[in-house]
Write the structure tokens for this entry.
Amino acid sequence: MSEALAAFNRWLIALPEADAVFLVRLTLGFVLCLGAIIGSFLNVCVYRIPLGQSISHPRSHCFSCGKIIPWYLNVPILSWLVLRGRCANCRAPISVRYPLVEAATALLFLLVFQMWGNPALFGLNRLPTPLLILPLWAFVASVVVDVLIDIDHRILLDRISLGGTALAFLLAAFVPTWFGTGVWWEALLASLGGAAAGFGVGFAIAWVGERVFLQDAFGFGDVKWLMLFGALFGWRGALCILMIAAFVGLGMGLAALLSAKLRRRGGEAGPLAIPFGPALGTAALLWLFWSDALVRLAFSTHAWAFQHRGAFLGVLLPLLLISLAWLLHRIRAIRAAVQEDDGLEPLSEESPEHERHHSP
Ligand SMILES: [Zn+2]
């Protein structure tokens, strides 16, 4: 594999510059197209998997008139733009979420390719192996699916959390450089330890939360997802993702509060929902792409903190977990207040939503 790659690099370097630039642009264009097509498929998954429908059958059709969408009107992003967001047959509106998900997936695929692609092509990659591109494409796609299904149904899929954890163990054993080592069992141990840490910390939060105040803020689905993040990024990654998610979650909570207030002003009140999954997924993607920069940002103001980062994290993490609990509690309180404002029943212990995040 590395031999072939080296030969490919030599061939690429020997190309006239104009040809090489053209080839790079062609490759990036191809990656963007692939990402958009996968994004289109993810839209189908998000809609059908929670309903227990097949993801391949039947073919895509209009939800309004049921007409099968021909392939030339099912081109990711472009078709939606050309049709101005309406069905070609019955003119029923098509959600802007579909092209947005396709565009987001295309960009995520491009980012993965840029960062872990051929170093001769991009000079940006962290690891000298393009073996990571496919697993990481699968990972970003699974995050997109889980975030959207969590928004729609308050469910995080077991097949992603548990299947992804098993695949992360395999990745560690077969591509140990992902964990910064050349020894397969060291990487596997790091992955197993990370999964245990993610599960353990998540379980503790869910257990305490269920008994104290969070109730539906952080459920068992989140615990299993955190286990996957631990298996993929190690224990530090799992804990940092949790921390980042707390901040992202607060931001989303405030945004939801604001939009609820705005909607009320417009005379249209809807229930306000803040699942933690989107914050967790966003944090995982931030960590995947910018972990180095985030760590540098966190420690840049205190050089001594970076030198003693082991001890520093030991003190900081409990503090951050407490603040995470507090942030989730705030979000829940804000949510309850807005629901009361909207004349909705505040969530009670017996509410069916108490069961959310438990995958079927
Ligand atoms: Zn239609």
